[in-house]
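Today's session is about reading a structure prediction critically. Students often jump straight to the picture, but the first step is always the sequence itself: look for stretches that repeat, for charged clusters, for runs of hydrophobic residues. Only then move on to the predicted structure, which in these notes is written as discrete structure tokens rather than atom positions. Here is the chain we will use throughout the hour.
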Amino acid sequence: MTDYSDLILPDNGQDARSIHLVDAKGYDAWLSARPERDRAALAAQKFAGKAASFAILPAERADDWAAVAGVADAGTLSTWCLAKLAEGLPQGSYRVEGEAETGPALFGWLAAHYRFDRYRTKKDDAPVGARVLLTKDIARIEPAVRLARATHLVRDLVNTPAADMGPAELEAAADSLARAHDATLVVTQGDTLEQHYPMIHAVGRAAARSHAPRLIELTWGNPAHPRVAIIGKGVCFDSGGLDIKPSSAMRLMKKDMGGAAHALALAQLIIESRLPVRLHMLIPAVENAIAGNAFRPGDVLATRNGMTVEIGNTDAEGRLVLGDAITKACEDAPELILDFATLTGAARVALGPDLPALFANDDALAGELAQAGEAIDDPVWRLPLWDGYEDMLKSDIADIANAGDSGFAGAITAALFLKKFVNGSDAHWAHFDTFAWRSAAKPGRPKGGDALGLRAAFAMIEARYPRV
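Below is the predicted structure for this chain, in token form.
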């Protein structure tokens, strides 16, 4: 993994190239004050001060050039305003000129250095650490580095093909985190999984032995501290099961473990930040495969909490594995539960790919998450956990169905299904229906796996449980 700590350094007056920031409202005045050489160079580069654009300013000596970047507001930097520079500037060290604090933009600078070249025989020629930003906001360097590393983890896990990122590999990622931070790892599989977590076992039992289902649990922190449970959907590949997906829908299903990637990254952030909580991370890791022993439409599954679930659609499997994991989390009486899942296409239809749907059983928690997301440029949008749609999950023969007969309110009914496994607990619970993917690149956010909702969740937890 990239050592992001080498990409942002304290500004102690060392040699560095200048970055001048301009915005649309002030560009003409700024340009008029520049020498003719600069005006000619910017005109030749067709630079007009637009946000997410930059140009090179020449100097008397060839090696003394500087950069000028267009941003939305030159006085108040945002998360992604320097990301285009971090992607495209030549190698070297840089400092932002002017009075604006660079702190908010540090994460974007780091995130822009991400590369996924594991499967390329020819690696990126430019060293990832070649562009260094100097900053006076020294206190914000370490937090930005932690966020970048966590985002890198999500991207790497999601981008890795399912052949190399199955349940065993998710277990290995959790084991690596546990070993690095003296956490405890417990993995349940085989007959014990079938007995105690029947829905997790049922969804994953058709997979090859090398991709056998399991529940991965990591615990860390002082048992006397408030208990926080983080749960991530770990469907490492989703064929749809016997209700098989079309090939076009199956193409990206390596990312169906994106919820697990978010859970691992959030656990890493909590542990590295030494927050005063008792952390319990749970990942139900499975492959929803097709074989003679696959669970079927019309089957009735037992659950850990004693309910029975009729299977209306085997492609609604994520909520099944999450149900057993949520039940286990509630048994330890946490005061906060967050789950992450690439759960429904309905959420993407409603909100698009960049905006995770948020459901919560507590208005204050939902407000904290929305506020944190807005402040840190990681937005989420609350959808209603409306009990009026519970009838869509009625079953004629079991306690509940895993999917309704219509396509209406798909994200809401999925969240209502999960809520059934939280009921009876006093925990404040929030569910993120996240895409975990970018179909189109943006500055600092390449096409492929990405963390959506991760920074909002961590900012909320950090505010609730600050270090003392």
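Discussion point for the tutorial: The CA atoms of residues 118 and 454 lie 24 Å apart.
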